[in-house]
Records
---
Amino acid sequence: MSFGQLTKQLAKEALLDSLRPPDAAARSESLGTVAAPAASPPDNLAAILIAQVQAMQNGLKDDQELVVLCTAGPETLRVLEIFAPSKRLLVLTGIDSDRAVTRLISPVESLQLVCKTMSVQAGTKPARIRFITPKLPA
């Protein structure tokens, strides 16, 4: 078999393995043929979002605070706490425009936050966002 024919044969097998359902690819792997690599798991969007907000907050001076706003329907919420019960869901707790404590439960994919740094008045302690990320089983 020439080098060109060998290359064509390997490409054909790789293409066929990628088109087979996962259980068929596993069976072909046990028979000695090479299967396509498994897809990587999706990113943990909740952890990425929390890490970004934490990084912004950690970079603040002592007289600054990070204001995080989230608008859902007619409500605008100033976020004071971010809780991640899972990799795909966030619970935001904060204060709405009527100064009532409000919670927003949202899938991470549809959440939009506005983050801005603001100076606090002299003698006032800056507000800090609290992050709650329970240890999830792997």
Note: Helices lie at 3-19, 22-30, 45-58.
---
Amino acid sequence: MNVPILSQAPRIVVLGSLNMDLVLRVPHMPRAGETMLGQSLSQVPGGKGGNQAVSCARQGAAVSLLSCVGEDAYADQLLAGLVADHIDVQHVQRSARDATGVAVISVDDSAQNQIVVVPGANLRLQVTEQVLRPLLQDADYVVLQFETPLEEVDQALRSARAEGCKTVLNPSPVQPLPDAWWPRIDVLVVNEAEAAQLSGSPVDSPESAARAARWLQAKGVGQVVVTLGSQGAVCCDQAADGAEAAAHWHRAPQVQAVDTTAAGDTFLGALTVQLAAGAHLDEATQWAIRAAAICVTRAGAQPSIPFHAEVATRTEASPWSPV
């Protein structure tokens, strides 16, 4: 796999959520009305914004994070962890009105998870052009998701276009996108459920993922990646005028999964850094799959996210095929 060596750190701005994850290990997901004995309870730094920022940083990027936390112990723990990963947190705001966001995550013996998020201070995040535009002037990409107010995502998309900074959007939790947003998105990263809801068509195979990716790209998006869990991912690159966009299915290596929490965030961070370093979309997708494959073999959100050197040591074949 011909992946660029990072001669200098790509610059990534992440606008997103910070949560403290309360992780419950359970034998299986409880049914309605069922009481069960859990196996353990742990506190783990998380939130999609925090996870994606950590993934970008551990892949070698210089990262600035825009987020909002409360004035509580969870906030102090989250910020300390980000600083340990050399992430710029000077633009993380503090809310005196709301507690830091919390996510309650149940992980069963098959490594699947269910997540309930209480956003808390994340919904208080407010960014201005005066803050955003100087950051985006020097950035290669800005990374966005939907665990913060959509007004702030809109502001970031508009500011990024004005400053010539490329955008990566992970529309999670998924909801319809305004028509004006589509052409402002350089890279759209979605899982099966998100791709299905946005495209209006079921996504349960690489073939259906490719159809959804082409539909999404036709809305004006530059590049689309649909992640398929243990099946890998389908990426759809920009096509020449009048030609059908080329979609490729990249398979994932077989691993013994322990916890799938943060796998998607790990994938997105690794993908973004490789694109910023000049990798082709196919190469970046293969690299991101390997990073996510390492992540799922470990417990917790941010503790499970691998470093660049760890991904570089993986030597599994990365078969792919057009779809």
Note: The mean pLDDT is 94.
---
Amino acid sequence: MRSTKLLLTLAFLFSCIGKVALAQQPAPVHATVHATVKVTRLYTGEDGLSHLKQESVKFSAVPGAPNTLEESEPVLMKKSYVVRIAPGFFEGWHNADVRRYVITISGRSEIEVAGGQKLIARPGQVVLAEDLTGKGHTFRVLGESDWVALFVDMEK
């Protein structure tokens, strides 16, 4: 009976030691294929109308950091704040008052630009609003939930 308990205890200990040793092994390095990160740019065209365009975020390696870490170009920020708007809200044709990122946190909204083109902004959607002149765009909150977003106003 004692020898069985001893054998089971030793087996358990060796099993634990093996797991710890494996956990301390460095993970193999694999070539990483990253998903494309998109930002929807809301801008004024030469025609004086607002337009929407999907653009990919460009990333660069960070000097001195592991090769799995990349970052975009930095943007100087003036201020940031969270906005909450109730369902059913509608704002007619207007321009962005400053250049800003608008990142939807929850809810859904619709941005309409020239020619009836519409963007449905869902959680995680990043919009770069920079249609500071021209006809502008409309905005409405869709569904039955508040639309909540992070606004990040940029320096000029």
Note: The CA atoms of residues 27 and 138 lie 50 Å apart.
